[in-house]
Amino acid sequence: MSEIPSIQDEEAEIPIPIKMVGFKNIKMPAGRILLNGLEIIIVPRFDVYVDLPIDRRAIHTSRLYHAIMEIIQDYSGKVVRLEEIGRRIAEKLLK
Q1: Could you tell me if residue 55 is inside a domain?
Q2: Which domain holds residue 86?
Q3: Residues 6+ apart with CB under 8 A from 34
Q4: If 58 and its partner were Cys, which of 8, 42, 69, 71 is the partner (CB 3.0–4.6 Å)?
Q5: In a domain, 1, yes or no
């Protein structure tokens, strides 16, 4: 079986920057609450975008998904505001 070529870091054939490349409505379980004896799973939706630099051909899409997953796992079992999760995801993607 042949490997799929990784084109993300290749030089762009047409060098133009593209803003807001990414995913919309990524749903990922982020926690649970107990309400009147009923356990409710919290499943927020995330929109995650990055800008494609002029010298790149594509973005690393798996990094967007993995950034969300990693930060949510960091907060597993902890009390946290969803805004804090969003801030941490943004910081990770900006690195």
Answers
A1: yes
A2: 18-94
A3: 40
A4: 8
A5: no
DSSP of 26-78, one letter per residue? EE---EEEEETTEEEEE--EEEEEEEE-TT-S---HHHHHHHHHHHHHHTTTS
| Number of domains composing the chain | 1
pTM: 0.71
Is 56 inside any structural domain? yes
- DSSP letter, residue 10: S
Beta bridge mates, 34: 39
At 36-94, the pLDDT tens digits run 888 888 898 999 999 988 888 888 888 888 999 999 899 888 888 888 888 999 999 88
For residue 67, what are the contacts with CB-CB under 8 A and spacing of at least 6?
48, 89, 92, 93
